[in-house]
Amino acid sequence: MSMLIKNAFVFTGDTFIMNNVLINGGKIAAIGVSISDDSATVIDAQGKYLIPAFADVHVHLREPGFSYKETIAAGTSAAAKAGYTAVCTMPNVNPVPDSVKGIGAQLDIINRDAKIHVYPFASITKGRKGAGELVDFESLKDLAVGFSDDGCGVQGEEDMKAAMVKCAKLGRIISAHCEVNDLLHGGYIHYGEYAKAHGHKGICSESEWAQIERDCRLAEETGCRYHVCHISTKESVEIIRKAKARGVKVTCETAPHYLTLCDADLQEDGRFKMNPPLRSAEDRQALIEGVLDGTVDVIATDHAPHSKEEKAKGLAGSAMGIVGLETAFPVLYTKLVKTGVITLEKLINMMSIKPREIFNLGSGKIEAGEVADLALLDLDCEYTVDPDEFLSLGRATPFEGWQVCGKNVLTVMEGKVVYEAL
């Protein structure tokens, strides 16, 4: 079956040009205003924006082991709805993907239920404990997109250095959740003005940036490709900026909530609780500056669903984590693009192109001969974020009730429609 998407503003990598795109055999066959195919299914985009489909390098799909929070079927349906055709899922599952057998349990469900491409991370340490025995990297290198102990930082310098040496030799990437356990002191929101004013235990910024500083030094020593998960502090931005200037093979991501919210926006509600926590307005501005100057490479969601009960215990008692797939683009488009902070092209680069480049998830180009992984965005669509409309099993989002613009209306993966709302 061939497909012809007509009258779309097509992303070229630098700008958008009105064009038609012909898809055949799962790939882009031709691009041009005069192309046609009488046998093709025709989709009239009516001036909507055709982009390389989004890729999220940091999601939690909760299976196997925690299907009451999320399933691979539900999570990938939510991703497809939002315009994603590729997600990298973190190892916070049971069994932990710390062996061929462990990751195999996850791959079995992915192969059975996933609506889009799912690339699992293997853990760095056995049991994803952040310490102790390292995994057998060699046996896992072709099954995993990379290695991560997301949910906890690798505490010992020697452990992280040994992991980096192994990954450098194998040409694999480490994607690190950076957190020094000894600096947490039972905190659960940012150690800032809100925590002090409301009697909450705070998490200091150093618990994040101290480990990033260590790991950038180790990455420089070992030559390992090193990616930093969900950075949230101004110090983290500066450390990574300087490391890149030295030639360290470091990349990083931040998330929509860190770019659009700060601890002054906190409410006594579990939907504002995540790890890392929402930091200060100064930290948020530093992250935006990092986006603008290229220090921050990728925007990932850290989509982390929990049950309603787990998120109903306020800031102190609720589980860490919010959902993010179905709000990422509209929130960022509304708050950063429409306000002139960044361009639409920059946002597409950070949500579609760079994630694919860093984690080898495909080209992310709309060109003849490339795989047809595409999303069609209606930038004029205005609506209110309503968690009851999510396809994810998770409902906790700080963006509930926000008025936003921009909605994905068509997702194509390898030439096949996996979501449509035209």
Structure description:
Helix 7 runs parallel beside helix 9. Strands 1, 2, 3, 4, 5, 15, 16 and 17 form an eight-stranded mixed beta sheet that branches. Strands 9-12-13-14 form a four-stranded parallel beta sheet. Helices cover 30% and strands 22% of the residues. The protein has helices spanning 72-82, 100-113, 137-140, 157-170, 193-198, 206-222, 234-245, 256-260, 281-293, 314-317, 328-337, 344-359; strands spanning 2-11, 16-24, 27-31, 41-44, 49-52, 54-59, 84-89, 117-120, 173-176, 189-190, 202-203, 225-228, 250-254, 298-299, 374-384, 403-413, 416-420. The protein has 422 residues and is α/β, with parallel strands linked by helices. The two termini are 19 Å apart. The model has no long low-confidence stretch (mean pLDDT 98).
